[in-house]
Predict the 3D structure of the following.
Amino acid sequence: MGVKRVLLASPRGYCAGVERAVETVERALELYGPPVYVRKQIVHNLHVVRDLEARGAIFVDSEEDVPAGKTVVFSAHGVAPSVHASAESRRLKTIDATCPLVTKVHVQARRYAADGYTVILVGHAGHEEVVGTMGEAPDSIVLVESVADAERLELPETDRIAYTTQTTLSVDETGEIIAVLRRRFPAIRAPKKEDICYATSNRQWAVKEMLSEVDLLLVIGSRNSSNSNRLVDVARDHGAASYLIDGADQVQEEWLEGARVVGISSGASAPEELVDGLVNFFRARGTTDVSEYEVLREDVRFMLPKQIRQAMTAAADG
């Protein structure tokens, strides 16, 4: 029978923070010439990283791997203050591509800690965003990863408790964790605006709305992409078959058995060309009905880092 219809979740793909981070590296390569060093993956997508490597970016695990005096870009996920200090001691020229929404979480955690609060950070251990946030006040921040963690968390008797969250979590699961925290610590202080970013929330919402229309959901994103994994989780939590793939070449035939309508979404760090490749995969198999399933439109834009904007102005004036 084959796949008769493909629905494209909208919104999907690049968010404003990812666009800003990727363009930051591209502009740095144009302005300063290769090599430009990047600490960690600029965004969690293998395709993007390989493309930038081919253009002269060098990805390193630590700022200590960057030769003294060279230029280094910090990834969209943010870094701890100790990384900035280390880079300064090595006389590195730093360009901070941290997503502004991640920066907001850093500032929030730092302020809570400075005011004497114990800060509960809801997030995934080891994720670069969490590592950076915890580095803002390591003695004051406690990590909670699950409802079970929240239930067994032991804190000193105090009303000065606050929480913040990683920006790329499951909206539903995080809501369950926060409900436990509010029950156990009634005086807990919440962020003025929720920390899960607009793009993460919107992509999960679009997937949920589309699930009743599809037999299978394919999510394009890399394995280390938190927000991409959450899209798969959301679909599976609602009883839908769903798989995470880096591109069309990873689709397995058995997934398509009995699937008449396939939904496609992509994580916030996945470029649209990968979606196009997956659509072409289905077109080559005879699928002719491909349409957008639009839930809402996004119009968020972030300015490039100051160093890049200043260098672009100087280049134009020159």
Notes: The two ends are 62 Å apart (CA to CA). Residues 5-14+198-294 form a domain with the Cobalt-precorrin-4 Transmethylase; domain 1 fold (CATH 3.40.1010.20). The chain has a mean pLDDT of 96. The chain is about 40% helix and 20% strand.
